[in-house]
Amino acid sequence: MIIRQMTINDYEEVLSLWERTPGIGISEADTRDNMYRFLQRNPCLNMVCQMDNRIVGTILCGSDGRRGYIYHTAVEREYRLRGIALELVKEVLKRLRVLGIDKCHLFVFADNKVGQDFWKAVGWQRRDDLLIFSKRSGES
Length: 140
Description:
Elements: E1 2-5, H1 11-20, H2 32-41, E2 47-51, E3 54-63, E4 68-75, H3 84-98, E5 104-106, H4 113-121
């Protein structure tokens, strides 16, 4: 297992994994150009796991300088239950600490039971005291 920093050269393989993973929502934010900007802004916080000469796991994380935010964590179905996602999470949290960021939040769709079960199993706490509101910046 090799865990390394994600680069834009990984884009097609990573996007393909996300598209095949139930519970991962792909949006306009995930285009190649937008991912390039995201990786430039958060150069050390996005990781892939390689096994058998292919990408089998990913974690997409960003920071606003105060908090970390995990967006897409995915592992190929046939590679699950090997600790890959947990190792990706540990690496990202370690890198956030190096940046002086001591808290990280993540986003899971309400109907993604597999994702919710994973995060609970590895010690993350569901928050019921917050709601997320969204709006596109081009709307008035």
